[in-house]
Amino acid sequence: MTKIPTLNRDQISARELLEPDTKSLELYQYLSASPKVQSYLRTANRMAVSRLGYTDHGPVHAEVATWNALKAYEILEQTFQPNLVAEGIGDTDDAQLVILASTYLHDIGMVVHRNEHYQAAVFLASQILEPKLVEIYEDPGKATDILSFILHGIYSHDDDVQCLTFEAGVTKIGDGADLTKGRTIVPYHKGKVDIHSVSALAINSVILDHGEEYPLQITVAMDNPAGVFQVQAILEKKISTSGLNDHISIDVLVNGDRLVLSQVKRLFRVQMDEPLESLRVMKDNDE
């Protein structure tokens, strides 16, 4: 049995993964201190939670998703070359800046509406980022190149949009990995009781680490097999269009014991014909 502590989303800060004297840190400090950005995030959350009864899409989600994305980047850059570098546009700090910005701002379009919010986010993020990027890079052409990568990452965080850059794929993974119970606790207490909220309440932690067979392993620790719905309907769906799906493994732990995902039907496509409680849980000493 593997013991993984419950994640406290409110204590996560993407700042922890940023090195001093980097362009990505400068941009993070700008975004996290910007009254406009923080107001957009709070309003996005009001739209999502208060009006629609959805999960957290506000400042905490921005921090958690960005932390996840930066962690995934830290792991995957040892195997993959970011498109910015491969295409001769920038260096690894620039790639990290792109991932940071696209993940932090991916949901601000929720201030307009849930429908097509990724399109609205592209428009709003352009206005926020353009003056700061020109200040960071000095060269307007380079700033525009960087902005185009960020906007692709924001646009591509939608489940059904295929990511066309490594940076966008990492952004999508960061967003999809924010699954823990803290993200849905407010809608649940307001009476939002459905498979999404009940499933999310089962998940305690999501850990990103180096894998043995694949470069990135995502471990989802839950106290009830109902959490599998979140893994399949959200995380796996986002991974499937990230462009990195062949390089990621997912390990599900139920009360510390590994769940064999191959025995689980894809819950968002077909109805289960057996209760979740009957799914096999593999002990650590099982073959």
Describe the overall structure.
- 45% of the residues are buried.
- The protein folds into two domains: 9-169, no CATH class; 181-282, no CATH class.
- The chain contains eleven helices and five strands; from the N terminus they run ααααααααααββαβββ.
- It has 287 residues and is α+β, with helices and mostly antiparallel strands.
- The longest helix is centred in the middle third of the chain and has 21 residues, at 117-137.
- Strands 1-2-3-4-5 form a five-stranded mixed beta sheet.
Short description:
The chain is an alpha+beta fold and 287 residues long. The protein has eleven helices and five strands, in the order ααααααααααββαβββ.
Task: Describe the secondary structure blueprint for this structure.
Layout: H1 23-33, H2 35-51, H3 59-76, H4 83-86, H5 92-104, H6 117-137, H7 140-155, H8 166-176, H9 185-189, H10 195-201, E1 203-210, E2 216-222, H11 228-240, E3 248-254, E4 257-259, E5 281-282
Parallel strand pairs: 2-3
Antiparallel strand pairs: 1-2, 3-4, 4-5
Globally, the shape reads globular
Estimate the strand proportion.
5-15%
Count of discrete structural domains: 2
Structural class of the secondary elements?
alpha+beta
CA distance, first residue to last residue: 14 Å
The averaged pLDDT comes out at 84
The major beta sheet can be summarized as: 5 strands, mixed
- Into which percent range does the helicity of residues fall? 40-55%
Report the uncertain regions: 185-191, 265-287
The tally of helices reads 11
Order of helices and strands: HHHHHHHHHHEEHEEE
Estimated radius of gyration: 19 Å
Number of strands: 5
Cross-sheet strand order for the largest sheet: 1-2-3-4-5
